[in-house]
Structure formats: structure tokens, C-alpha cells
Description:
By secondary structure, the protein is α/β, with parallel strands linked by helices.
Amino acid sequence: MKLFDSHCHLDDSVYDKDREAVIERARENDVVVMLIAGVNRSSVQTAIDLTRQFPALYTAVGVHPHDAQHCCDDDLKTFRHLAADPKVRAWGEIGLDFNRMHSSRRDQEYWLLRQLEMADDLKLPVIFHERDTEGRLLELLKAHPNPVRTGVIHCFSGTRAEMEQYLDLGFHIGITGILTIQKRGKYLRSLAPFIPEDRILIETDAPYLTPAPQKNKTRRNEPAFVKSVLMKLAETRQEAPDVLAESVFQNTCRLYRIQGDA
Length: 262
């Protein structure tokens, strides 16, 4: 079995003391590739440095909606330059978050569209963050269409109608450890069988969203735990784990344009 943690934050300082051990545990649990999602210029540079040390790591450039108030044109110029690095495989995570509102709605929407324009220009797949926007992200994506745009809705937590609209736009659906949580993941489990097999990605969002059963022992998530997401997904979809794992692995490699034998 080969697994790809399609979205994690191994650049986070919580891994500074044992990052190498964390990556080794991932390998021991069949996680052979991991992609670090960027959240700001500093995190992107740290992530790129890590890809130099660990061949299994790839990364993305972008400014998270929480950090939109600090985004500037110089950031985008830097990202355009960094995107030429062969280890940079996507733009993100970008999007909208109307839950915590660390940045204003105006700043979030403005920098989302600026980054989306640049990602399209560079022909990079996009990692989208969406939380409590009541359809606003969909509105903006439909208002600024691009028939060849690809990407993934990270940590999908919407309705079936929203999911189908994202699929119609050509995007993948990212499934996190929320799927494994008894109450919080109930609705997501009801949707999982309806996601086309060639559009599913699995992710940890580590160090956040620790899945069951690991969450009963540790608060810090890590890429090794993406195996629990895969196993619950296979159970929910009533599919053989090894067959589903291969499909999801190939989906992720194809989206991020990484050789499928990684």
C-alpha cells in the first residue's frame, strides 16, 4: 500500500524537535509522499528548505485566508519566483474563512482572486480553504471561471449540493480525519460514497484534525495518521483498502503532476 498525505504542515514549529522521526513514522505507515501547504511567505520558504532535506516532501506556495491582511504584491512576486522550483506543485492553501475572521472579508476575497489569477497563469493546481462562507467561495469561483483550472477543496465539510458543484467545476475533494470522528464526521461519512473514486484525496492537515483512534492518545496530528483516514474511507465506501489506496494515490500524483511511482 502506498499513501500520499496531500495536505499537511510539517513546517510547523511543533515538529522542530522530532521532524525526522515524524517523517520516518510516516514511511513506516506506508505514507511515501507528503505535500506541505503554504500559509504565508515565511512558511513557504521553510517548507521549500525542508524539501531539500527530505525527498518525500513537496510543497505549495500561497497565503492562507487567515493571513490575507498581511499579504502584499511582493509576496506574490516571491511566490511566482519560487513556483519555478520543481518541488513546488500547487498554489495554496488559499480561500475564504468566515469563521474566525482573522482577516477581513474584503482582504480575503481580494487576495484570493489575485492568487487565483496567478495560479491560473502558472497553470498550477489550487488548494482551496473554505469555512463557513455560505456558498461565497463557490460564487467567486463561478464568477471567475477557468475551464482548465484544477484543484482540491481541502478538508471538505460542506453539503452534498456544494460537493456536487465543486465536482462540476472539476475539483477534487479532500478528506481529513474528521471522517473518523463519531459525531462530527457523521454527515461527511454519508457523503463519502458519492465522491467519484478518481476525485478523492486524503489528508491530515497535520498538526491539526487528529483522527480516531490516535486522537485519544495525542493532540498533535502527523502524516502517519493519514492511514486511519484511508481505512475509514474504505470502510465507509465498502471498498478494499488496498484498491482504494492505489486510486487515491494516483489521483494525488496526477493532480500535483508527480510521477505515480513516487
